[in-house]
Amino acid sequence: xxxxxxxxxxxxxxxxxxxxxxxxxxxxxxxxDAGVALPAPLAPTTDFTKLEPGEAKxxxxxTSRGSTDTPNAFSLSSGxxxxxxxxxxxxxxxxxxxxxxxxxxSTDASDGLGPLFNSRACQNCHLKDGRGHPPLSTDVPDTSGxxxxxxxxxxxxxEEKALLxxxxxxxxxxxxxxxxxxxxxxxxxxxxxxxxIAYKEKxxxxxxxxxxxxxxxxxxxxxxGYGPASxxxxxxxxxxxxxxxxxxxxxxPDEQILANADPDDADKDGISGKPNMVWSREQQKLMxxxxxWKAGIPTIAQQAAEAFNGDIGLSTTMIPxxxxxxxxxxxxxxxxxxxxxxxYQNVEVGDDxxxxxxxxxxxxxxxxxxxxDDPEVLKGKELFYGIGCTxxxxxxxxxxxxxxQPHLSHQLIYPYTDMLLHDMGEGLSDNRPEGEANGSxxxxxxxxxxxxxQIVNGHTLFLHDGRARNITEAIxxxxxxxxxxxxxxAALSKExxxxxxxxxxxx
Length: 507
What we know:
Blueprint: H1 7-16, E1 28-29, E2 37-38, H2 83-97, E3 116-117, H3 122-125, E4 147-152, H4 158-165, E5 184-185, E6 194-205, E7 211-222, E8 234-239, H5 246-250, H6 254-258, E9 277-280, E10 285-288, H7 300-312, H8 331-335, H9 351-362, H10 375-386, E11 397-398, E12 412-413, E13 421-423, E14 441-443, H11 453-457, H12 471-476, H13 483-491, H14 494-506
């Protein structure tokens, strides 16, 4: 790796105004033997009396220019994007929202749904480009498709072990139900089953006597349509994450992320952080995982292709499976017609449409912060740093060169994530490995935009399965490497806890 920051990075930062006031001064090197020199703006702040330069615009110059107090706050384009690309963004938005239908159909540009699926449209999972949720009521079925269940089984042959060890796959599908439970199906086909959730309440006492109740979920599969699942099947319920800022996260150079990795906890601070190296379908090589709850996906394009196939049952040139996640034990699914068409490169979502969706996904802008310089918010920021939250929720990065997207390049961003895996303790474990992530390891979730969840999505349900009903509950679920920070939060006075939560909600 180069020992010095590329000259283009510095010049680009000046050109785009991402860090103009900050580029003077020393360069700081982060991470032992990281082998890369990073701009001084990435050094942690020590002054909590005022905002850092650029902090009010967490997406740099790509931060949204639109209103942050509307349900569309997550659906706006990169604020500095060339006007000519706005059409691509709008077309991508239309495809993202489009309801697909089963094949054959007179509208062959929109057919190919299923045969098994979780949703008819991308937007139905990523509600308003924001967060999904578990069923909001045990009495009313949830048809949004914004929560799904990953399925896998342990390896049983040397060949399967070799696939996992070579990282050619992140997990092994259940022989009957595949890698994901699809609860819906086209006409004439049975859905695979349903996820049953049973919650128990667990009380936690905080300093000052406040009692907080946490929901402890228990999961099981019911109404299975194709016989019993494997006895050793592993389940991982997941809600759809918000879509903002993905292109900026993809543009962060690997070396900046890896500089924070310490898989063996060499510095003995209790925070290990490790990368999930996963197989790239595009590049046909191992790459750094960045996306998904366990960082199991290396690029936005691959995330889109896998969602098209697993969630909606649509084929792309990257994953040309017209029957989606059907298995040999679901013969009616495999016998159903597909929408694969020579008009669209013999798949259901041809590259022209697919690239528009990927572009849209890369350019959903991060909203500007709300009242970031409020004195109570700044005090909350100091507490957030002080109790150790930034050990995993790294405040800032500088994006590198984003090919074909200069508006995302060389931006100083504040996502509050390190994109690495951390052990979050037994309480949050799904007991299901994914790539190099074990059952209790999760990627640090970005925090930008989190305070707008209620406005955009009408709820405040957080964590990978939506069990936490607010920010406080989400923090109290932290264990493992985050146990120390969690305990320090619980020991704060009520006034200071409110300040820290106010800071998080301002992001």
